């Protein structure tokens, strides 16, 4: 079995399968999630927005409270744009990717994979970041335009005195922000769908596994036969017992299902071998207190794969 070095760690074929099915998804979701608008800031904006809808907030006697609420609203907009700030993710990526063209192909993928899991993770992260960055650099600008008013208001709110006009302008700017943020979220989701790197990476890993790893499959062995005995259990003539002998040349995990008097089939009964399976020449017994005498026996070669048992009624 191929063992892939990972900075002092070994990543065998089974671990590569786990990487494909678990770690890769977590990595992808984390990279994508970094481009979502700040959820807590959006909640704060809605909260202060509701407060400012109240006529009492704009009463002449409440100037101090109004200024405080406006500042908090502006701070929330500042948090929204943290991703696009000069020290934020988008600007950092703009410098990182300046002059670069990121090409995702199987040759680069396999090269990174053979260098180890950490190298593979770095490659995947960079590719996902690049695709999301291209979208964010253009679309986030629209959100930025919609928040510019609030970022400017934060520094000048205490010097304003025409609060009625300010109230009208706030409503207009909030409506523009709603449209811009909704458009950004739609574009973000469209990018996820069009740039389907996750499935592409899974296909590359599958290709690597097929070429380099001899992996067990969920190949069930059907129609096995055992010795059936009627009326030997539970003190009932309707009891059914079956003894199965492993006559194959390798261990088997075995299961039995008994037909019920109504014609349906019971749940699969396991052989109790705790994953190792019954050795060649070994036997296993199952029984039911009420059956028709018909039994299905199923087996599979032991492996680390989680194989789903078929429906016994099919």
Description:
The protein is an alpha+beta fold. It folds into two domains: about 5-210, no CATH class; about 220-300, Immunoglobulin-like (Sandwich), CATH 2.60.40. Helices cover about 50% and strands about 15% of the residues. Strands 3-9-6-7 form a four-stranded antiparallel beta sheet, with no helix packed on it. It has a three-stranded antiparallel beta sheet with strand order 4-5-8, with no helix packed on it. A two-stranded antiparallel sheet has the order 1-2. Helix 4 (about 90-95) crosses helix 6 and helix 6 packs antiparallel against helix 7 (about 165-195). The longest helix has about 40 residues, at about 115-155. The protein is elongated, with a radius of gyration of 32 Å. Residues about 1-10 have low confidence and may be disordered.
Largest sheet: 4 strands, antiparallel
How are the strands of the biggest sheet laid out side by side?
3-9-6-7
Q: Separation of termini?
A: 35 Å
C-alpha Rg, in Å?
32 Å
- Mean pLDDT value: 78
Apparent shape: elongated
Note the total helix count.
8
In terms of per-residue confidence, which ranges show pLDDT below 50 for 5 or more consecutive residues? 1-10
Q: In terms of quaternary structure, what is this? A: single chain
* Beta strand %: 5-15%
**How many discrete domains?**
2
Please bin the fraction of helical residues: 40-55%
Number of β-strand runs? 9
What's the SSE pattern?
A: EEHHHHHHHHEEEEEEE
Class computed from helices, strands and strand pairing = alpha+beta
């Amino acid at each position: 079995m191929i063992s892939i070095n990972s900075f002092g760690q070994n990543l065998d074929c089974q671990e590569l399968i786990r990487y494909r099915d678990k770690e890769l998804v977590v990595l992808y979701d984390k990279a994508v999630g970094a481009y979502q608008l700040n959820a807590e800031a959006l909640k704060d904006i809605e909260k202060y927005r509701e407060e400012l809808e109240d006529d009492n907030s704009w009463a002449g006697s409440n100037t101090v409270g109004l200024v405080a609420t406006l500042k908090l609203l502006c701070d929330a907009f500042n948090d929204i744009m943290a991703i696009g700030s000069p020290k934020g993710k988008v600007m950092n990526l703009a410098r990182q990717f300046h002059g670069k063209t990121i090409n995702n192909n199987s040759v680069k993928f396999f090269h990174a994979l053979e260098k180890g899991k950490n190298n593979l993770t770095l490659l995947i992260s960079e590719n996902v970041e690049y695709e999301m960055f291209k979208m964010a650099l253009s679309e986030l600008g629209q959100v930025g335009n919609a928040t510019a008013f609030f970022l400017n208001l934060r520094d000048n709110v205490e010097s304003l005195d025409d609060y009625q006009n300010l109230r009208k302008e706030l409503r207009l700017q909030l409506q523009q922000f709603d449209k811009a943020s909704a458009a950004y979220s739609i574009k973000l989701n469209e990018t996820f769908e069009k740039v389907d790197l996750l499935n592409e990476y899974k296909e590359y890993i599958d290709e690597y596994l097929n070429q380099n790893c001899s992996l067990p499959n969920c190949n069930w062995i059907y129609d096995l036969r055992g010795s059936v005995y009627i009326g030997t259990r539970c003190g009932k003539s309707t009891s059914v017992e079956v003894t199965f002998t492993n006559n194959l040349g390798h261990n088997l995990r075995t299961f039995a299902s008994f037909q019920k008097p109504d014609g349906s089939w019971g749940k699969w009964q396991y052989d109790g071998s705790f994953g190792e399976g019954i050795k060649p020449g070994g036997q296993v017994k199952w029984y039911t207190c009420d059956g028709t005498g018909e039994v299905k026996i199923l087996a599979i070669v032991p492996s680390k794969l989680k194989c789903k048992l078929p429906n016994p009624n099919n």
